[in-house]
Amino acid sequence: MSSFERRYHQTVVLLVLLILLLPLLATLGYALATEWGATILPNGVTLKWFIALWGDGRFLVALGHSLLICFGALLFSLLLVLPAMFVIAWWFPRLDGVMNVLILLPFSVPPVVSSVGLLQLYSSGPLAITGTPWILIGCYFAIALPFIYRAISNNIQAINLKELLDAAHLLGASTWQAALWVVLPNLRKGVMIAVLLSFSFLIGEFVFANLLVGTRFETLQVYLYNKRNDSGHFTSALVISYFLVVLLVT
User: Fold this and answer.
1) How far apart are CA 154 and CA 116, in angstroms?
2) What's the mean pLDDT in 80-106?
3) In this predicted structure, what is the pLDDT of residue 43?
4) For the chain, is the Cβ count within 10 Å smaller at the N or the C terminus?
5) Residue ranges of the ABC transmembrane type-1 domain (predicted)?
6) Each residue of 57-86: pLDDT tens digit?
7) Does 234 share its domain with 186?
8) Within a domain: 51
9) What is the domain extent for residue 199?
10) Structural domains of the chain, count
């Protein structure tokens, strides 16, 4: 690659990053401004909006709720999906086509329609879990399933599962010992990608959280929605804090 092509590619990357970061930088500027109206630059800089936000116990509780539900759903998904994927890949490879159809189902039904059905199913009876975090964990499992399955499935295809297990069998390991000590460590990159993709998507989910739980177990997105009529500087600080939390976790 010539020096001109290298500089061209670097310029394109910088422009793309600038375009992506410009709205975030503008939001950060508004969150730090005392007032910003008719002038190009803000009248002053202050941290009072961030101090007010992080001093709000309701915000901290909503943030904790969001992290708890997201990590709970991801842990449940991994504990259920990883063994199932190993069984499918090793013993029933023909079921992979069926799974490719099943993982598309969460995208085929709009969340609003799904929420109405879930409200009717779980508002009464032995599983009256509407308004509790348990129903959100189940919904988030369905949302995260396509991301987790596809990322890990691609990783399984890349590591050549059959040769790894055959080599482990020759060394005296059982199938499940090989799965735990040989296959699983080789899937760490696929698992990490699946977790990061799913977490970034789940923490921003609003429809299920608002319709099924609302303020009874307020999440970060529901809190942001309830604060929409407050100061624009305060909500800007909330958005920046949300991005920082996602950045730190991922």
Assistant:
1) 34
2) 87
3) 78
4) N
5) 63-250
6) 999 999 999 999 999 999 999 999 999 998
7) yes
8) no
9) 57-249
10) 2
